Write a sequence for this structure.
């Protein structure tokens, strides 16, 4: 009997979401096949790669990152530098210093910095917060206003602050709303339902379904993404068809494999290589499980992942 | 497995208001009932125009265009013994949201509706019944085989034949209820889709009792593998039961707002 290959193409598809404006705008999602299954049907939008900088500039960064930004005096300089790195599709600004239990920088100061960056580059922007839900609600509302017309991604609304963030980012200023859950598929769906019940167009929503660095409870991250894509495509669940953006840098560069100095762990070899490895492995694994975009920070990791995407899709 | 398919039963000539609206081609009552059913979560709408001798084709065409035009090509079940009316309805039917359902064929006088569905790439409800009510499941499964073979011979996919065990009224045929449920399991074991007029079970019962009986039966039938039913989607208890069973069966992913979507 002749073998007839059956296509794994689905009737349902992931929503295609565009962010940024003009020539540099990027589009993620749109596929009607499992991640990277381009042999089943063409994947129009390959996964995209963003570069992350924070409001601390280079203050807390390892030497191996700092060296790429030598000579940068301001955040705007750093943003321009970051935007010029090979393979970068978009720029992510993390307002880490806003945390009331940390540096507790004021909203005005951080929004001022955000504007400085937005003026310096024409790449699409993703704005990340400080992980304190009350402060983030305030930061994201102001960020949505400050970036009016930029079609930026506000990453992200959580269960505790989705009303404020969704209303400002999704309704008032028509930015793309990120919906964040921490490796909890039922909450991921619920948050999308709640955000759409607010009146936000579900085609302007992306998800951050949570992540970890490889080796740190990572199997659960992968199975969550697998199940999100299965529900979205096999069951046609419209409340899970939003594309996924995964911030990888903040996780991968926070574990000892990436952070331990060569003095402390001489047997582990070069810190820079270890950090890049952690970042690349985490990024590639979440892309294979369904992330439509990843946020990284080492220029070498970005080059590797964007190169892989060109080869694979 | 996909979600349970609910076919809304409230557009039927058995309701005097609907009958009048069909005869007078009055869109308003039809659209109102259609909207109520869709808002409540119906996937398909059944359009029962009765035998409609003479004017059936014209009426079905009118109803299909009216409903699909108003509700984004909502998928429909064309329910009449008038074959010409079904053909006329399919001729103007838009398939973008799902194939039309021919309601229905049986193993006696209406077996040719299988051929009609096959010729029009439609789904057909295949009622496993001949003359009179089947005496046992051997007889039902005999009809099932006959109808399935007829469909396959005419080039249909098995998945487009939705087998109906014929739900029976409890008051009078209580002793047959488990037979019907066992029949659904046999369909399911063969990988076949199934449907039926589930609320028939509670015919003649007090109004307040019917949702309770219908909900209990739909849960038991879904456990047996029932994939669809022709029901009143405006029965909240029933719809909540179906959505909950879809969660237990893994047909849909749970979220706290699952009853609202």
């Amino acid at each position: 009997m002749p073998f007839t290959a059956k296509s794994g193409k689905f009737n349902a598809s992931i929503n295609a979401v565009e962010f940024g404006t003009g020539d540099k705008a990027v589009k993620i999602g749109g596929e009607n096949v499992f991640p990277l299954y381009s042999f089943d049907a063409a994947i129009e939008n390959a996964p995209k790669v963003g570069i992350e900088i924070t409001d601390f500039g280079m203050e807390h960064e390892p030497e191996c990152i700092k060296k790429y930004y030598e000579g940068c005096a301001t955040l705007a300089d750093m943003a321009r530098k970051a935007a010029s790195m090979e393979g970068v599709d978009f720029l992510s600004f993390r307002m880490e210093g806003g945390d009331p239990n940390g540096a507790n920088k004021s909203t005005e100061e951080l929004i001022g910095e955000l504007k400085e960056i937005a003026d310096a580059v024409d790449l699409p922007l993703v704005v990340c917060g400080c992980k304190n839900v009350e402060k983030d609600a305030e930061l994201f509302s102001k960020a949505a206003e400050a970036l009016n017309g930029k079609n930026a991604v506000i990453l992200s609304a959580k269960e505790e602050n989705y009303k404020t963030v969704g209303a400002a980012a999704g309704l008032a200023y028509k930015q793309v709303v990120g919906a964040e859950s921490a490796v909890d598929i039922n909450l991921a769906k619920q948050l999308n339902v709640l955000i759409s019940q607010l009146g936000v167009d579900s085609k302007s929503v992306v998800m951050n379904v949570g992540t970890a660095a490889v080796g740190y409870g990572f199997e659960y991250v992968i199975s969550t993404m697998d199940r999100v894509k299965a529900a979205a495509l096999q069951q046609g669940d419209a409340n899970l068809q939003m594309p996924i953006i995964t911030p990888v840098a903040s996780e991968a560069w926070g574990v000892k494999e990436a952070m331990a100095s060569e003095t402390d762990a001489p047997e582990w070899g070069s810190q820079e290589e270890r950090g890049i490895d952690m970042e690349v492995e985490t990024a590639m694994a979440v892309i294979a499980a369904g992330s439509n975009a990843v946020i990284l920070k080492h220029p070498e990791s970005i080059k590797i992942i964007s190169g892989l995407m060109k080869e694979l899709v | 497995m996909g979600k349970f398919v609910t076919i809304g039963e409230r557009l039927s000539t058995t309701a005097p208001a609907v009958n009048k609206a069909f005869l007078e081609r009055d869109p308003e009552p039809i659209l109102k009932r259609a909207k109520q059913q869709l808002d409540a979560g119906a996937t398909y709408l059944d359009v029962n125009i009765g035998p409609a001798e003479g004017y059936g084709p014209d009426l079905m065409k009118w109803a299909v265009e009216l409903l699909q035009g108003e509700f984004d090509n909502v998928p429909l079940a064309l329910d009449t013994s008038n074959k010409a009316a079904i053909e006329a309805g399919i001729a103007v039917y838009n398939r973008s949201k799902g194939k039309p359902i021919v309601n229905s064929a049986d193993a006696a006088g209406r077996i040719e509706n299988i051929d009609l569905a096959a010729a029009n790439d439609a789904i057909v409800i295949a009622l496993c019944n001949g003359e009179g009510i089947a005496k046992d499941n051997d007889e039902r499964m005999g009809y099932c085989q006959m109808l399935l073979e007829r469909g396959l011979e005419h080039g249909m996919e098995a998945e487009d034949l939705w087998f109906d065990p014929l739900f029976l009224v409890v008051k009078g045929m209580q002793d047959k209820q488990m037979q019907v449920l066992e029949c659904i399991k046999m369909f399911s074991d063969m990988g076949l889709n199934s449907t039926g007029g589930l609320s028939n079970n509670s015919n003649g019962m007090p109004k307040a009792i019917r949702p309770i009986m219908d909900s209990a039966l739909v849960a038991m039938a879904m456990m047996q593998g029932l994939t669809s039913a022709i029901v009143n989607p405006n029965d909240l208890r029933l719809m909540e039961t179906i959505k909950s069973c879809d969660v237990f069966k893994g047909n849909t992913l749970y979220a706290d707002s699952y009853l609202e979507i």
Chain B touches chain A at residues 2-3, 251-257, 260-261 (CB under 8 Å). Residues 137-153 of chain B form the longest helix (17 residues). Chain B has a mean pLDDT of 97. The domain at 5-260 of chain B is CATH 3.20.20.20 (TIM Barrel).
